[in-house]
Design goal:
Keywords: Membrane, Transmembrane, Transmembrane helix. By secondary structure, this protein is mainly α. It is built from 11 helices and no strands.
Amino acid sequence: MNNLIQSEWYKLRKDRSFRALILIISASALFWSIFQHIDRTMDGEAPPTGIEMWMSALLGNYIMIIGMCVLAGFFISSEYTTGVMKGIAASGNTRGRIIVAKQLVYALGCIILGLLFPLINGIVATMLSGVGELPDESILLYFVRTVGLLVLFAAGFSSIATLIATFMAEGGKTIAFTMVFFLFIDMFFAVAGRYIPFIETIYSYTVFKLLYDIGTVSPDGSLLLRMILIPIITFVCFGIMNAWVYQRKEIK
């Protein structure tokens, strides 16, 4: 198992799409933080502090979702079409171990992509305008909690993307479908919830809704518990489904 994880980690580090995503996200974060500083200064407003940029970058974190969708297509689905997955399946390792190693490393890649944009925004803004302050909570506690939650949610979303990539088994289709799915799932729940209240209740207990609450300052105990448990449950449940699908999938 350890060898499989090391092999997948090596492939991820060497993956051109992963490297390109890191560069693109880093450049975007650098540009956005500097642009916000210049724009507010020119308008006569106080430039954003590090904690303000960190909080704004957490809202929805669509950069993480887009990067995750692209990575799913290149790192997971493309290996079906290129024959790499068939070679791994014939290597003597069980399918369960193969997909678990793949999903764990892919989740790590998503975590890295998810942390990049907020971290760079916060660091650059801190260098330009200072850390800032929060009225009801220490910045250190807030930062540690939100980083931990972001890691959990990135892992939770990655398990959903892994299942879709295993079903699609083609890079282009996976990227297109996952982007449409993740970017419009909120709209679906919003529209359906107007007519079926039960769906709105379900939505409030999903990673899709709770992602917007990561940046909440001093969340109550109930909300914090949901933000911890729901992404973990999502990661485990979708991971089990993905392993089940992969074990029964015909690999060509």
